[in-house]
Design a protein that fits this description.
alpha/beta, Rossmann fold, eight-stranded mixed sheet, 10 strands
């Protein structure tokens, strides 16, 4: 492989490290602190570096901050369980570091969008604008499923299996292309080198295997909805035209806005993109994000 096959960033990021609730957090930064702050929050199994392509397409000056969530990327942390409220609390600490007094702009993808949506409802005064990229929430679970769910979580914890390892970055890049087929080979190669590193002759993902465990507590969509109902920020919902979450997408596109998880939110559909919009169509995500946030600055 030659270096020409690996994406070369147009805007170099720098790394910052912060102690956040017992975790040494890695945060990627672009731009200068005197520009408007935008916080980018990645999804499950991803890392902050995947936003590089979007950042390279931004036309205005922004101070962009993107953490690696606990247990992902360079924010390495080993534990037996990862609780979703921890992400919300971690975000609160990170925002107190970067913008302690003023309200902020958030963009979250998938799991990151779900964390941001909860935060925006719990602390509505802290969020001015929120770009929700495919953060649909989860399907509701019946309380009757709790006993078997607890059992499954405990039994899975007894023999925790690690993530798949890869023979080389090319193999991992091929896997990324299957997950984000509309992206280019050079971008897949860049993501591969930021999702993993070489250890003992194998390519190993930067992710704690405990992330693979089922959640011990059943998801209660009504609780998430109660948080969403308290969001005061301007909200933009962004969907991939080819997303695999089609049932959820239909609800978001319904002409009756009362069915939207965020009242009064606008919806943008990105053509030719699946779930991984920030990797597949970063130029389009950058364009619609700047158009949305530009009206709020």
């Amino acid at each position: 492989m030659t270096t020409s096959e690996i994406y070369e960033p147009l805007r170099k990021s720098r790394s910052a490290w912060h102690d956040v609730r017992g975790v040494r957090y890695h945060v990627r930064e672009w731009g200068t602190a005197d520009a408007p702050l935008v916080v980018l929050l990645h999804g499950w199994g991803d890392a902050s570096a995947s936003f590089q392509f979007m950042v390279d397409k931004l036309e205005s000056d922004w101070f962009v901050v993107a953490p690696d969530w606990r247990g992902f990327g360079l924010s390495r942390y080993r534990t037996h369980s990862y609780w979703f409220p921890d992400y919300v609390a971690d975000l609160d600490v990170l925002l107190s570091i970067y913008q302690p007094k003023q309200s902020v702009f958030l963009l979250g993808h998938s799991m990151g969008a779900n964390a941001a949506g909860l935060y925006a409802g719990v602390f509505p005064e802290r969020v001015r604008g929120f770009v929700n990229v495919e953060g649909f929430g989860l399907a509701d679970r019946e309380p009757e499923k709790a006993p078997e769910n607890y059992r499954g979580w405990i039994e899975s914890s007894r023999s925790l299996r690690g993530y798949q390892t890869y023979s080389g970055y090319d193999e991992l890049a091929s896997r990324i292309l299957k997950r984000a087929p509309a992206t280019s080979v050079d971008k897949a190669q860049f993501v591969a080198r930021n999702w993993a590193s070489e250890e003992g002759g194998h390519i190993v993902l930067h992710a704690d295997p405990a992330h693979k465990l089922p959640n011990a507590v059943l998801y209660r969509r009504a609780e998430a909805s109660a948080c969403w109902d308290r969001v005061e920020a301007e909200v933009l919902l962004v969907l991939g035209e080819d997303t695999e979450f089609r049932a959820d997408m239909k609800a978001w596109l319904d002409p009756d806005e009362s069915r939207h998880p965020f009242r009064g939110a606008r919806t943008e559909v990105v053509a030719g993109a699946g779930h991984m919009i920030h990797i597949e169509k970063p130029e389009e995500l950058a364009r619609i994000t700047e158009a949305f946030l530009g009206d709020l600055v």
